[in-house]
């Protein structure tokens, strides 16, 4: 899980309290419960939760830590609550966005109409390392590419004091984190059953069913009873817990590359009863490692011949190969344009306004407003090569200015938004901490479905905007109510 | 016009048996302007369990095959009869100024002008590719190329000058590089083989904002006077094509500093070697292996009756 959450606070939107300090209506029953509940009971519950998570083994590998150390992701007991009508609007926006992103992927790997029409500059696609020439002209089942999408949303204070949601990032490769969403709910119901009698919290535990239905719906044409598997890079991957969890929840095999082989453009898994045909792979392995015959030759994790079977339409990969070109930072600014171009609709969800420094006007504006802006490297990830204007010293800004001038096309700039906060249990009691939201959007057949809410990530340090689990970020249970 | 029989044999010998092998071959010559395949046959020993033909994304014919039975040797023999009519090189002095080609691509690809179909197709050969990375070193390539690409110079004149400059500055040396030697190293060492010369030329042209592609093929070599042609003494060859608005793709052979003629036979093209390497695959088992490639290009006097199974 990672995202660059770097927007610094002006006066952030508080999810629980209005500007005058009053508790928002949808948080009132919780506030009442909190007032009645002794703090030492909550402290006890917190210890109980930690123990249970350890026992179940819900851990996260931290790369670079000694021996690939596993550790718990901090779980906060104070839920993030979203009113039902707010969620329904978000849901419509997410459906629309994911439909447009899939249409874009189908287009750029076929006719490239959006490039011909001049709505997206061709170089943004052709000069993009995530654009897979190998996928050109390949017809994927159902024309779908991103069956599983994780869309990162943040909320910033609008001019009228109301929170405005923005899409910060689309994750269309192998978005992770859904196992925390499911386990967090289980944990909350176990710890505080009384709370759930005060709210009509919409359920999320059917996610694995939805996921399996989605995978089966995108099987190659003519397969009546498709077999799906979950392909993992193995136990050393940071999200291995999630891979085994989801496979177990769906009742499908958890496989590694060595468990699979291709014969006559058909994919099989080795089983104790002999080879068994596989129709759909839910792959949690990056493109580069999928097939050593086509991509990285040193990959020991993939399946030789897989791309050939894929091209022949004999197996479905979810997600498809080459989806990364649609969630790249250089393509992000064009997503609203995709919605207009492919769907003929106005985008429901906001994009964060983005200045593309390869454009002279945007460059001039950015250079004149560096102290207010966040500047990101287009192909960078994880906060490397980034300037957070309001938090930077004069010297840092001047140094960055030279880097921009040397190669403006490598950068984009965005205004700093104040991420919303949600009250969170901390050592000193309860304090506001910045949060985001990652809903998981499933596209299969003609339907786009999702469980209400998503994964709420929370920055556990005061004032911090970094919610990444690799940086000590935590999670909360997310309730869509009413 | 010229007619050739081309033999391209690849033999892998493995130390221990290979139990599974999947291969992708770029060995059937593609159809292109001035070149026509009259007959083609691919022999694979042992006989593959599965073999299929398709086109790749650059329009090259591809043969994919798989061997499922244990084998300690793999032989792939490609036999092609090809007719070549050398395309006439346009008068270099009459080609557009090189900046016009650059600007046409830049404006179309960046969205500052309508994207013409020709620029869109050329665009996929305009940027860095796996064997031709253009990081910080791109400035060095551009500086080197700018010695030939002087302001306002006709594109093809500049191209010929660059080819001559590379030919003069770099030494052909099969011992200096391997398939995996990066362009930056070739540039520093000033030596390499046709693949390196081609990648370097492509890097220079793309660093200037031009579109250039890698052409894999064969070259007719003349035996020394009075000596017979030796079978298998030739080698695969590679050269470059540069895109020009109006003129399309123009071939250049930087290894020999020449304009390809009837002696150059095109097999396939792509962004770089990685897209078109003649044979690549994955094997299970085998231990160490030795590979032996033998290429022969034989001129055919005239089309023998029945010699081609697909006369046109």
Compact summary:
The complex is a heterodimer of chains A (482) and B (312). Chain A has 482 residues and is of the alpha+beta class.
Describe the structure.
- Chain A is globular and about 65 Å long.
- In chain A, the strands form six sheets. Chain A has a five-stranded mixed beta sheet with strand order 3-23-22-19-18.
- In chain A, α3 packs across α12.
- Chain A is an alpha+beta fold and 482 residues long.
- By secondary structure, chain B is an alpha+beta fold.
- Chain B is 22% helix and 36% strand.
- In chain B, the strands form three sheets. In chain B, strands 1, 2, 3, 4, 5, 12 and 13 form a seven-stranded antiparallel beta sheet that branches.
- In chain B, β3 and β4 form a beta hairpin.
- The longest helix of chain B has 15 residues.
Break the fold down into its secondary structure elements and pairings.
The complex is a heterodimer of chains A (482) and B (312).
Chain A: H1 28-36, H2 39-56, E1 60-61, E2 70-71, E3 75-83, H3 84-108, H4 113-116, H5 122-126, E4 148-157, E5 163-171, H6 178-191, H7 193-196, H8 207-217, E6 228-231, H9 240-250, E7 253-255, E8 260-263, E9 266-269, E10 276-277, E11 280-283, H10 287-290, H11 306-311, E12 316-318, H12 335-343, E13 350-351, E14 355-356, H13 360-368, E15 373-377, E16 386-388, H14 394-406, E17 411-415, E18 421-426, E19 429-438, E20 440-444, E21 447-449, E22 455-458, E23 474-481
Parallel strand pairs in A: 3-23, 5-13, 6-7, 6-11, 11-12
Antiparallel strand pairs in A: 1-2, 4-5, 4-20, 8-9, 9-10, 14-17, 15-16, 15-17, 18-19, 19-22, 20-21, 22-23
Chain B: E1 2-25, E2 35-45, E3 50-55, E4 61-67, E5 71-84, H1 98-110, H2 117-123, H3 138-146, H4 155-169, E6 171-172, H5 183-189, E7 191-192, H6 194-207, E8 212-219, E9 236-244, E10 248-252, E11 264-270, H7 273-276, E12 279-285, E13 289-299
Helix pairs in contact in B: 1-2, 3-6, 5-6
């Amino acid at each position: 899980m990672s995202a660059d959450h770097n927007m610094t606070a002006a006066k952030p939107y508080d999810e629980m309290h209005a500007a005058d300090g009053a508790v928002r209506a949808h948080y009132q029953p919780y506030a009442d419960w909190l007032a009645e509940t002794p703090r030492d009971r909550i402290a006890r519950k917190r210890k109980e939760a930690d123990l249970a998570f350890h026992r179940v083994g819900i851990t996260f590998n931290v790369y670079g830590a000694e021996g690939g150390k596993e550790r718990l992701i901090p779980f906060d007991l104070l839920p993030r609550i979203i009113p039902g009508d707010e969620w329904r609007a978000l849901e419509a926006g997410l459906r629309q966005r994911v439909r447009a992103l899939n249409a874009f992927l189908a287009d750029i790997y076929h006719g490239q109409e959006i490039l011909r029409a001049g709505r997206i500059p061709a170089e943004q696609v052709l000069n993009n390392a995530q654009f897979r020439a190998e996928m050109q002209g390949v017809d994927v089942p159902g024309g779908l590419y991103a069956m599983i999408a994780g869309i990162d949303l943040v909320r910033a204070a609008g001019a009228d004091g109301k929170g405005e949601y923005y899409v910060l990032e689309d994750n269309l490769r192998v978005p992770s984190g859904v196992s925390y969403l499911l386990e967090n709910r289980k944990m909350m119901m176990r710890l505080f059953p009384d709370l759930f009698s005060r709210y009509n919290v919409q359920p999320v535990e059917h996610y694995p069913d939805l996921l399996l239905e989605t995978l089966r719906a995108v099987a190659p044409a003519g397969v009546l009873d498709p077999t799906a598997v979950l392909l993992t890079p193995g136990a050393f991957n940071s999200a291995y817990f999630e891979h085994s969890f989801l496979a177990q929840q769906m009742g499908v095999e958890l496989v590694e590359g060595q468990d699979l082989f291709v014969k006559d453009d058909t994919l099989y898994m080795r089983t104790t009863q002999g080879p068994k045909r596989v129709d759909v792979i839910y792959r949690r392995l990056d493109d580069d490692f999928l097939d050593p015959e086509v991509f990285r030759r040193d990959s020991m994790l993939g399946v030789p011949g897989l791309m050939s079977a894929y091209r022949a339409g004999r197996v479905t990969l979810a997600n498809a190969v080459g989806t990364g070109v649609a969630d790249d930072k250089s393509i992000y600014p064009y997503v609203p344009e995709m919605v207009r171009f492919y769907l003929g609709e106005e985008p429901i969800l906001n994009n964060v306004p983005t200045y593309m420094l390869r454009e002279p006007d945007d460059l001039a504006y950015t250079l004149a407003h560096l102290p207010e802006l966040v500047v990101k490297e287009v192909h960078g990830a994880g906060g490397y090569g980034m300037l957070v204007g309001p938090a930077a010293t004069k010297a840092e800004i001047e140094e960055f200015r030279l880097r921009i001038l040397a190669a403006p096309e490598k950068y984009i700039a965005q205004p700093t938004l104040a991420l919303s906060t949600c009250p969170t249990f901390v050592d000193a009691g309860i304090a506001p901490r910045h949060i985001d939201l990652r809903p998981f959007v499933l596209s299969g057949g003609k339907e786009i479905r999702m469980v209400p809410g998503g994964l709420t990530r929370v920055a556990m340090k005061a004032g911090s905007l970094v919610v990444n689990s690799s940086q000590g970020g935590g999670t909360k249970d997310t309730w869509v109510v009413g | 016009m010229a007619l050739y029989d081309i033999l391209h044999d690849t033999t892998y010998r493995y130390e221990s048996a290979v139990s599974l092998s999947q291969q992708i071959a770029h060995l059937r010559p593609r159809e292109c302007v001035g070149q026509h395949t009259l007959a083609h046959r691919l022999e694979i020993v042992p006989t593959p369990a599965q073999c299929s033909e398709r086109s790749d994304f650059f329009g090259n014919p591809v043969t994919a095959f798989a061997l499922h039975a244990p084998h300690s040797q793999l032989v792939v023999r490609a036999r092609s009869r090809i007719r070549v009519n050398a395309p006439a090189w346009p008068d270099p002095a009459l080609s557009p100024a090189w900046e016009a080609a650059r600007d046409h691509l830049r404006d179309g690809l960046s969205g500052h002008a309508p994207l013409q179909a020709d620029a869109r197709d050329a665009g996929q050969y305009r940027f860095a590719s796996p064997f031709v990375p253009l990081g910080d070193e791109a400035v060095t390539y551009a500086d080197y190329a700018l010695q030939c690409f002087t302001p306002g110079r006709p594109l093809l004149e500049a191209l010929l000058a660059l080819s001559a400059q590379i030919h003069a500055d770099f030494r052909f040396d099969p011992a200096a590089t391997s398939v995996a030697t990066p362009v930056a190293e070739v540039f520093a060492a000033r030596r390499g083989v046709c693949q390196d010369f081609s990648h370097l030329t492509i890097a220079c042209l793309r660093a200037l904002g031009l579109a250039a592609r890698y052409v894999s093929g064969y070259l007719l070599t003349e035996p020394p006077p009075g000596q017979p042609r030796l079978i298998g003494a030739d080698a695969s060859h590679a050269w470059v094509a540069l895109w020009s608005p109006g003129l399309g793709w123009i071939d250049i052979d930087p290894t020999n500093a020449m304009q390809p003629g009837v002696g150059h036979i095109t097999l396939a093209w792509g962004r770089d070697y990685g897209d078109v390497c003649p044979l690549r695959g994955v094997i299970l088992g085998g231990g160490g292996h030795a590979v032996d490639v033998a290429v022969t290009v034989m001129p055919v006097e005239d089309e023998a009756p029945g010699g081609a199974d697909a006369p046109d």
